[in-house]
Amino acid sequence: MKFMKLGSKPDQFQTKGDNIRYVATELATDMVINVGDVKFYLHKFPLLSKSFRLQKLTANTNEENNDEINIDDIPGGPAAFEICAKFCYGMTVTLNAYNVVAARCAAEYLEMYETVEKGNIIYKLEVFLTSSIFRSWKDSIIVLQTTKVFLPWSEELKIVSHCLDSVASKAYIDTSKVDWSYTYNRKKLPSENGSDPLWNGVQKQQYVPRDWWVEDLSELHIDLYKRVITTIKTKGGMSPEVIGEALRAYAYRRLPGFSKGKIPGSDPVKYQYLVDMITSLLPTEKHSVSCSFLIRLLQTSVSLECGETVQSELKRRIGQHLDEASVADLLLRAPANETTTYDVDTVHELVQQFMLQKRSGRSDFPEDNEFQEMYPAFASDSSKVKVARVIDGYLAEVSRDPNLPLVKFVNLAEMVSGFPRPSHDGIYRAIDMYLKEHLGITKSERKRICKLMDCRKLSAEACMHAVQNERLPLRVVVQVLFFEQARATTSSGGGSTPDLAGTIKSLLPGESHGSSRSATTNTDEDWDAVPTAEELKALKGELATLRLTDKEVGCNDTNSIDIKMSVEKVIGGKAKGLIMSKKLFSKLWSNKDRLSENSSSDTSESPGSSNAGESKSTPSRSRRHSLS
């Protein structure tokens, strides 16, 4: 820290009691000055020779026959006045970043100009500020912090503006020229910690990070910090990511409990203003701040009941970054007056913002760029895949809340139902978790929630879990069983399962097929019922049998008939008529055979043949089944 000493005489100021200060000399004092609640017994000559204001006040007291002068409004109070008084006596005074603003404002009040006496204190203080304080990084910050107490004097004397310019200029300087100390407690590179090995026996030059200045500025008061950041942004050229990091560091430093999203209620107005200020200073460029930080800021604004404008702006900004969010980021606690554990409504709004901005957003390519025509929705689809994955994981977590209404779960899931997904395992896991934690839901509710997933997009592991899942409706279990077997039979390279033919659709739950639907075995009520463990075991065993047989013999005509008879036996005996009639499953199996054969490019079957047993296995079919 820089300092300056004025005067050479020893300090002769002494104290009597709590509020009396006097100069211990042989000469009797002839002047009493009241500064606040402190009385100063001093001598006129040294003071009047340097202070034009005291000259005028003394003249007035002589006319009024009053021996005391009152200067209650001097900036800095008794301490600042004493510095100026000691300077008048020529006594030693030490000035530094902590008291120089007080002394400068008090000297201005006392009008201690060069016109009164050459080498007066104002001139010396200005030299000290210009040549030392404003050239020092940390001293400039300290002085800037102290100026708040002396407003408007510090503003009128341009101390604030000089400090702002000094701090902003140093923050903006090339990092290779930073040769002063600074505070940096975040994770550093090995070279910053001095742990890098020597290169050719010479220690490498330490690396200065671009955001080296953000922690020191976090000590500033809200208003001063806002002015510093504004000044830095006005100069231009500062990376938006560094500005964003500065705001993040300030939020964590000045908002107690920010990491948890809940601020203590000691001074809500102050913290509301702080959140508003940080939001207004956020850079407009994307990726300048992380989505995690924006969500934490939103959670804080909700807990502090900040204005709707601030919350709407934060939600809009989060919508731009939602593909960067994690499940943990979105697990926002619900307000105290809510019965649910998590704030699902806010996440619903964030997804809405994401969809609105994706719908209205423009491509980063120029309009005439050929890549825009080749890949018009590449970035959009990529971000949608990420958002769908995060929301699936989020739903799985919030489903553990027994108070979560089904409508909130379904509404949020339906918002991303149209997003591209490589797999529906995530939404299946969320549905399974909800069914596990909400055993009391009705059949219609169970049916509604299961419609959110596409059984054709479940992985093999998810299918195996689903066919053993006692919480799923029978309708879903049969669909999973069919699609898994169809995929194993018709797919040669892991491709997607083809859409169902009309006849097969009519056999699956929810479709009508004339007299094929048995009133006792295939009603909607039966399809929506939950299967027993024995029925699931039968389905699982039959699926394994079908797979094994397909792999061994290529699914030829004779074995197809054997498999069909085996299935009919299992379904009729173990499932007790609840899954479907033998006749229906026979039609389902026959149609599956036709799907398998129609998918082959080298079939020898006649289009008019009605006997499935007369069809022949082609080389292409045998090869396909051997790869499945």
UniProtKB/TrEMBL annotation:
Keyword presence, Ion transport: no
Gene Ontology cellular-component terms listed: cytosol; membrane
Pathway connected to this protein: Protein modification; protein ubiquitination
Compositionally biased tracts (Low complexity): 597-610
Entries under Gene3D superfamilies matching the protein: Potassium Channel Kv1.1, Chain A
Alphabetical GO biological process terms: positive gravitropism; protein ubiquitination
Listed Polar residues bias regions: 513-522, 611-620
Keyword Phosphoprotein among UniProt keywords: yes
Keywords: Phosphoprotein, Ubl conjugation pathway
Region (Disordered): 489-525, 593-628
Domain NPH3: 211-487
Similarity comment: Belongs to the NPH3 family.
Protein name: BZIP domain class transcription factor
Native species: Solanum tuberosum
Lineage, top ranks: Eukaryota, Viridiplantae, Streptophyta, Embryophyta, Tracheophyta
Gene for this chain: LOC102589934
